[in-house]
Amino acid sequence: MTRRLVTAALLILAACAPLILPEFYVTLLNYVGLYTIVALGLVLLTGVGGLTSFGQAAFVGLGAYTTAYLTTAYAVSPWLTLLAGLVLTALVALFLGFITLRLSGHYLPLGTIAWGISLYFLFGNVGFLGGHTGISGIPVLDIAGIRLETGRQFYYLIWSLMLLGIVATQNLLDSREGRAIRALKGGGLMAEAMGVDTARSKILIFVIAALLACLSGWLYAHLQRFVNPSPFGLHIGIEYLFMAVVGGAAHVWGALLGAAVITILKEWLQDLLPKIFGQSGNFEVIFFGVLLIIVLQRARDGLWPALQRFAPVDRRAPKVASVDPIAKRSMRRHGTVLLEAEGVHKQFGGLVACNKMNLEVRAGEILALIGPNGAGKSTVFNLISGVQPLTAGIVRFGAERIDGKSARQIARLGMSRTFQHVRLLTAMSVLENVALGAHTRGSKGIVLAALRLERKEESRLLAEAGRQLERVGLHDQMAIQAGSLPLGQQRILEIARALCADPFLLLLDEPAAGLRYLEKQALADLLRKLRAEGMGILLVEHDMDFVMGLADRIIVMDFGEKIAEGLPEEVQRNPAVLEAYLGAAE
Amino acid sequence: MDFQIALLLGQDGITNGAIYALLALALVLVFTVTRVIFVPQGEFVSFGTLTLAALESGRVPGTVWLLLGAGVMVAMLDVAEAVRTGTRGRIPRILGWNIAYPLAVAAAVISLAPHKPAIAVQVALSLAVVVPFGPMLYRLAFQPLASASVLVLLIVAVAVHLALVGLGLLFFGAEGSRTTAFSDASFDLGPLRVSGQTLWVLLSSIALIAVLYQFFERTIYGKALRATAINRIGARLMGISTTLAGKLSFLLAAAIGALSGILIGPITTIYYDTGFLVGLKGFVGAIIGGLASYPLAALGALLVGILESFSSFWASAFKEVIVFTLIIPVLLWRSLTTHHVEEEEE
User: Fold this and answer.
1) pLDDT digits (tens, 9 = 90+) for A444-466
2) Which of B155, B338, B344 is facing A241, going by the closest CB pair?
3) CA distances, B129 to each of A293, B97, B119, B126 (Å)
């Protein structure tokens, strides 16, 4: 309630601002709005997605120059030029994204530096774009008969678009696609294993950020009614990044805060510093450089988290609505072969990590893979689930060959896994982490998410996540941050996440490690229940009591080779196994 | 274009390319050792040239004050840390390097500058002023963030670049400078006339590369740097200090940068912000080498130099556009040939 009141009060304040404030401040507010739109894209790209671009100013320039040129040279309607600018920007961003995003993270920023410089020189040297003098006489915007001639009028357009942008971005982040985007930073491998196309998510946020910048450029051109290359240089691109980082790159409202702080500070410093130091120099650049270094050293999350502490907190537990459940695969008949691996081989240089392994998992069966440390069990897991490519061998899942397929494609076929070293998004809630597992079960895209038109599907996904949490006994913890769970429960959370994908086959890498006795029993009960439902389970585990009481069959590995296979009691008596575990009796 | 012009352009391109190659090597070195994409590399180039130019005209370069100021800040941080961690024995050494050394250099510069000493002395003084700024910069800006992600380090590098460009304007003003050539001699090689300065640039670059090679192959510090580049944690476990490795790589980068600046000073007019573009061209070379391979980076940088000189002949207004667009086919090629699943950093 207080949250709503504060929001309403701020909105009224924002609506009245141009009526009360003198011209100078309205201009300042207009710039804050324009910068916020650009910084918002960087929040999505850098703060949330962990990528970055120094070339946003060039995208702003693309938007501004497209409209400037088309409206002055061909008298095209500004609304059409907005569309043209957006299309052009999207094409450029797709191309840049395509060539850099498959490489390590730092190639995108480097690529955007080069792109920013090139475009800047291009603007300054191409004759029909006016060279360094630029283009003037850009027409006034006209909305439903109202001509936006003054800064005061323009303010409403800029700030409405800015607020719309913020709300849409917030909506997007709080959705299925948003979870995938939030997984990019620090959870890419896991997200791929949950069926998320991380390359697509990366390109998506890069394009969104570029489009926001283009929009800002279009607004700028019609506000100034004049463009030249100088506001689109690399230094301004860097300044946009400052705004996002100083404001708090992981928070959408940080964009507004950062844009406001930097714009006002810059205005103030340009007045103040020459008075102190007397000379004409570029003092504010030095100041900003040092400020940014200090912010990154001392408060890497920016200013917004500091401000947020004073804001009323939303303490409502996430609602898991009782909606009609989401469609479920029907399990295969008991005894059907789910997974078949033949001669699976993996070599790292001269080291054979896994030597021509064969294994088979059937529906309604628990197969345990055991062996001393370093025997190659996790390698087998990674090979089967597509996390690592195999050197040789064939893997079939159902009727399909899956060797050579990516982790994402395999996940979509109905194989789901947990990791030996827990891979969670520690800052996200338990429920959201689990819902990430259901990524492949939804289909609504980013546009619907930004407009909140996918709420029905979203609530079904969350309800499914809630059901799986209930199943594994973590129901009470679903609102807390995943990182605050003890390690044993984090492993259980991974199981819930894997179950959320509705798999035929579950791969569990040491699920019982770190669990207490009763928790282990509960886990064993759960796995038995899943087996009874027809799920196939492949299990790597060190806890012999747990394995022997649960598994239908056991494979023992040592030094990358299978040394025994059979029923638990057979394996326990096998001399090769005893030797591997206890050493030979001399 | 006839053969004569092509030869001339080629010579120009190779000369500039040699400088870009040096910078590309420094960038690869700093990146592999510290994971910092060293955007301010170019500022060392401008600082090198402009410091020398100031000395040539008998003025005291502003970089001297920068050295003193940075020294004081480093000393304060390090002494505070020494007191906090109970390693007070380090204090004399800290004060020696960060207070006494800058004071000595400042005294030398202030007393010698008005007398316009011999060029070798001027070069030595310029290096003595600019080079120590490398490790100081590492201490002030990057060491507190040594464990941060490449992205954060990159943003800091850009911030450092901005601050240094601002300082460059403050110290040297907006006018560009050109230093006098080391030699006025020129040689005729068949149809080609090679200037002494070009030879200086090429020979110094080759010598520097040879020295670097010896350093990395033969000395314990060079090996420590290589070890850190290959595996930071492993190197630490073997007792190699990451801080030392970081400072050392910054020292080398600063030395290479300042030296490059001194070498190209007589060839092109250098402004306070020229270094950035020069450094970025080194970057394009380094990226061609994937930020990992020294020979490929050097070759890439030569290619950049040649491309630049030929495009300045055909389309001089678009010279920068052409050079920086070169990065796009390179990235495209790299992205199509790289198949790796990146283990993300935490």
Assistant:
1) 889 999 999 988 899 899 999 99
2) B155
3) 23, 13, 15, 5
Question: B71-87, pLDDT tens digit by residue?
Answer: 999 999 999 999 999 88
User: What does each C-alpha distance from A525 to A458, A472, A552, B205 come to in angstroms?
Assistant: 30, 10, 14, 71
**Rounded-to-integer distance, Cα A190 and Cα A419, Å:** 8
Rounded CA gap, B77 and A350, in Å? 48
Do you know the residue count of chain B? 346
**Can you name the residues that pair with A507 across neighbouring β-strands?**
A417, A538
Angle at A206 between CA B340 and CA B153, to 5 degrees: 65
CB atoms within 10 A of CB A271: 10
Identify the structural domains of chain A with CATH numbers, from first to last. 25-308 (1.10.3470), 332-414+503-586 (3.40.50.300), 427-502 (no CATH)
Residue bearing tokens 């401000």: A307
At residue A244, the 3 state secondary structure works out as helix
Question: If DSSP states are collapsed to H, E and C, what string results for A1-46?
Answer: CHHHHHHHHHHHHHHHHHHHCCHHHHHHHHHHHHHHHHHHHHHHHH
| Token duo for residue A115 | 């792109």
Strands B192-195 and B186-189: antiparallel
Query: With an 8 Å Cβ cutoff, are A111 and B328 in contact?
Result: yes
**Separation of alpha carbons A392 and B305, rounded Å:** 45
Q: Is B124 on the interface with A (CB under 8 A)?
A: no
Task: Give the number of beta-carbon pairs within 8 Å between A and B.
Answer: 146
Chain A contact present for B292, CB below 8 A = no
With CA atoms as reference, the chain B residue closest to A290 would be B163
Q: Hey, are the CB atoms on B342 and A293 less than 8 Å from each other?
A: no
> ipTM above 0.90?
no
Per-position DSSP letters for A494-561, written without gaps between them = HHHHHHHT--SEEEEESTTTT--HHHHHHHHHHHHHHHHHT-EEEEE---HHHHHHH-SEEEEEETTE
Reported pTM: 0.86
Instruction: Please check whether residue B73 touches A, CB under 8 A.
Output: no
Q: Pairing between strand A505-509 and A415-417?
A: parallel
Chain A partners within 8 Å of B140 (Cβ): 293
Distance from CA of A392 to the nearest CA of B (A): 18
A108 closest CA partner among B154, B278, B299: B154
pLDDT tens-digit map of A527-545: 999 999 899 999 998 888 8
In sequence order, the 6+-apart residues with CB closer than 8 A to the CB of A269 are A283, A284, A287
Sheet of A400-401: strand order equals A351-362, A337-348, A392-397, A400-401
**Least CB-CB distance to B344: which of A115, A188, A296?**
A188
- Residue whose structure tokens are 């909140």: A452
Of A98, A103, A281, the CB nearest to B170: A281
B110 C-beta neighbours (distance < 10 Å), count: 11
Q: Structure tokens of B32?
A: 């592999």
Contact by Cβ (8 Å): A221, A67: yes
Place of tokens 């309403």: A8
Q: Give contacts of B318 with chain A, Cβ < 8 Å.
A: 121-122, 125
Beta strands in A92-184 (DSSP E): 135-136, 141-143, 146-148
For the record, the structure tokens of A223 come out as 């506000």
Whole-number pLDDT of residue A496: 94
Domains, chain B: 3-183+191-337 (1.10.3470)
Under a CB-based contact definition with an 8 Å cutoff, are residues A556 and A370 in contact? yes
- Which residue of chain A is at minimal alpha-carbon distance from B154? A106
Q: Is residue B268 scored above 60 in pLDDT?
A: yes
Strand partners, B177: B270
Answer yes or no: is pLDDT of A170 > 80.
yes
* Residue A248 CA neighbour count, 13 Å, CB half: 13
Angle CA(B231)–CA(B237)–CA(B242) in degrees, nearest 5? 65
